[in-house]
Amino acid sequence: MKIDIGIPEKQRVKVAEGLSHLLADSYTLYLKTHKFHWNVTGPMFQTLHLMFETQYTELSTAVDLIAERIRALGSFAPGSYAEFGKLSSIKEAEGVPKAEDMIRQLVEGQEAVVRTARKIFPVAEKAGDEATADLLTQRIQLHEKTAWMLRSLLEK
C-alpha cells in the first residue's frame, strides 16, 4: 500500500538511509558495550560492570526505536553483521582491553553515534520529518551525556 505521510518517497528513502547508519553504529556500540560488561576486570569492576549494563540495555531499546522508524518511513532496516559492518563507523573491539581502554573506546563510540545522528538531522529537517528529528535529538542528548560520564571516569 502506498505511504502518504506528507514526506515524499525520495526524502523518506534518504532519511531511512541515514537512520540505517545510525542503527548500525548503535548496534555495534551495543555489542561492544555488552562485551565489555561481560569481560571487565580490575578495581573498578563493580562500577563499570553495572554502568555498562545500563548502557547496553538502553542501546537495546534504542536500536528497536531506530529500526521501527526506518520501517515507518517505508524502508527495510538492516539487521545482519555484514550489513552493520558496511554501515557502521565504529570498529569492533579486538580482544579484551584493560578497563581504562574499554572506557576510552566507549567514549569514542558514543561520540561516533552523536556525529552520525548530527549528519542525518539536516536531511530530516529538509524533509519536514519531525518524528525523526525528535528521535535524533533524544539520541544526541543521551549519547553526549553518556560520553561525558565515561570521560569523567578517566580524569585523574
Automatic annotation (TrEMBL):
Residues 17-156 form the Ferritin/DPS domain. InterPro entries: DPS_DNA-bd, DPS_DNA-bd_CS, Ferritin-like, Ferritin-like_SF, Ferritin_DPS_dom. The keyword Phosphoprotein does not apply. CDD domains: DPS (cd01043). The keyword Transferase does not apply. GO terms for molecular function: DNA binding; ferric iron binding; oxidoreductase activity, acting on metal ions. Keywords: DNA-binding. Belongs to the Dps family. This is Starvation-inducible DNA-binding protein. It comes from Povalibacter uvarum. The lineage of its organism: Bacteria, Pseudomonadati, Pseudomonadota, Gammaproteobacteria, Steroidobacterales.
